[in-house]
Amino acid sequence: MTDALFVVSEEGYWGEECTEPLTTLSDAGVEITVATPSGSPPVVDERSVDPDQVGEETAEHVREIDATDDRLNDPIPIAEASAEYDAVVFPGGHGTEWDVNQDRHARSLLAETLANGDTALVVCHAVGILGFTWGDSEGRIVEGKDVTGFPNEWEKGIVDENDRMPDGRKLPYWVEDEVKQAGANWDAELDADTSVTVDGDLITARGPGSSAEAADVLLEALGVEAPA
Q1: Within 10 Å of residue 224's Cβ, how many Cβ atoms?
Q2: Domains of the chain: total
Q3: Cα-atom radius of gyration of the chain, to the nearest Å?
Q4: Cβ of 44: how many Cβ atoms within 10 Å?
Q5: How far apart are CA 18 and CA 8, in angstroms?
Q6: Diameter over CA atoms, the chain
Q7: Once rounded to an integer, what is the mean pLDDT over residues 166-185?
Q8: What is the pTM of this model?
Q9: Is residue 32 part of a domain?
Q10: Inter-residue contact 34 to 71 (CB < 8 Å)
Q11: What's the whole-number mean pLDDT along residues 214-224?
Q12: Domain that holds residue 112
């Protein structure tokens, strides 16, 4: 059976970026395990379940899955996860900047997954992990790769002039800056409705609106048929 590991933030994951791939893969029969940095249940970013921001239907759907999905509510610590899954998925959300992207076990897991020839899907702010992950050589894993992710242009509309988030937290870095500095070929395709980029076994997605497409692309990469 095809299996996948979801690495989800305890500091605030963006609902749709987790639940869309989670339900798509589950419906296709993929066996899913969830991991978080400490093994505590992940925490959804409240903005991603605010009907005024994401709409009533999306907010309700995300809240239901967040509250009832046994995999999300009983994760394993990332340190206990192996790189033996067919795919590893890193949902985004600003919270990843404080935990997942900086977690040495998460970075090792990503590097080993790609080195094994397995598939990684990295979404939105989680794309920042690529800027901090080294491969087998001396270069970072993203060097020379085509990627998309959460763009600076969008970040400007969220943080203030001191890079403070609406909740007062100071954003430690901007994803686009870190990934470009690590040698990636960055294109968030700002003129397109969605942005999903495939470079070998690495799939990156720009943000919430690209989550559904990213999930379909991942299924295709895994050779798994989507349910009719």
Answers
A1: 19
A2: 1
A3: 16
A4: 24
A5: 8
A6: 49
A7: 96
A8: 0.96
A9: yes
A10: yes
A11: 95
A12: 3-222
Tell me: pLDDT of 222 over 90.
yes
Is 190 a member of any domain? yes
CATH number for the domain spanning 106: value is: 3.40.50.880
Tokens of 107: 């970075």
Contact 74, 35 (CB under 8 A): no
Using the predicted structure, report yes or no on whether residue 137 has a pLDDT greater than 70: no
Q: Write the pLDDT tens digit of every residue in 79-109.
A: 999 989 999 999 999 999 999 999 999 999 9
Residue type, 61: H
3-state secondary structure the chain: CCEEEEECCCCCECHHHHHHHHHHHHHCCCEEEEEECCCCCCCECHHHHCHHHHCHHHHHHHHHHHHHCHHHHCCEEHHHCCCCCCEEEECCCHHHHCCHHHCHHHHHHHHHHHHCCCEEEEEHHHHHHHHHCECCCCCECCCCCEECCCCHHHHCCCCCCCCECCCCCECCCCHHHHHHHCCCEECCCCCCCCCEEEECCEEEECCHHHHHHHHHHHHHHHCCCCCC
Question: To which residue do tokens 């709409």 refer?
Answer: 55
Residue 135: band (very low, low, confident or very high) from pLDDT cuts 50, 70, 90 = confident
Position 228 in a domain:
no
Is the pLDDT at 208 greater than 90? The verdict is yes
> What number is the average pLDDT over the span 143-166?
96
Decide if 227 is inside a domain.
Answer: no
Token pair 């076994």 in the structure block, residue? 201
